[in-house]
User: Which sequence fits this backbone?
């Protein structure tokens, strides 16, 4: 299992939640072109990271079959962008992304003794520091405390 395999989800779920702050309706989500496009991009990345997770044998006993829907959404975004049902995307962002994040935290806790997970957290923080992503670093530190305590 490579370190890269552990560089998953945290930045994407966090950024989606921050981007959606104050966007309380599907209409606002659809009307705000910058938020809509940025969230779509993060969903693409989240879907790709999830796809890699689903391929990993190490995690199979812990995988929720519902996670495949995130990969499917990514595929629709990538291949059928102009056919996207924005209401469906809004629902996924509003309800499924937070639940997925909680499940990924539970998954990470299962592997909290794996040195590669610890290294991945440190490497992710270094990468985010180079990019001046203060909010993402703070979020990652919060998740790190949850996972390792």
Assistant:
């Amino acid at each position: 299992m490579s370190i890269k395999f552990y560089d998953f989800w945290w930045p994407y779920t966090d950024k989606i939640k921050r981007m959606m702050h104050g966007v309380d309706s599907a209409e606002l989500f659809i009307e705000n072109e910058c938020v809509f496009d940025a969230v779509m991009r993060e969903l693409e990345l989240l879907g790709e990271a999830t796809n890699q997770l689903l391929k990993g044998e190490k995690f199979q006993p812990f995988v929720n079959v519902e996670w495949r829907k995130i990969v499917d959404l990514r595929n629709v975004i990538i291949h059928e962008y102009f056919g996207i049902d924005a209401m469906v995307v809004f629902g996924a962002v509003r309800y499924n992304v937070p639940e997925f994040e909680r499940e990924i935290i539970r998954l990470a806790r299962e592997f909290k003794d794996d040195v590669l997970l610890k290294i991945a957290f440190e490497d992710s923080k270094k990468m985010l520091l180079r990019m001046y992503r203060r909010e993402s670093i703070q979020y990652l530190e919060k998740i790190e405390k949850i996972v390792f305590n």
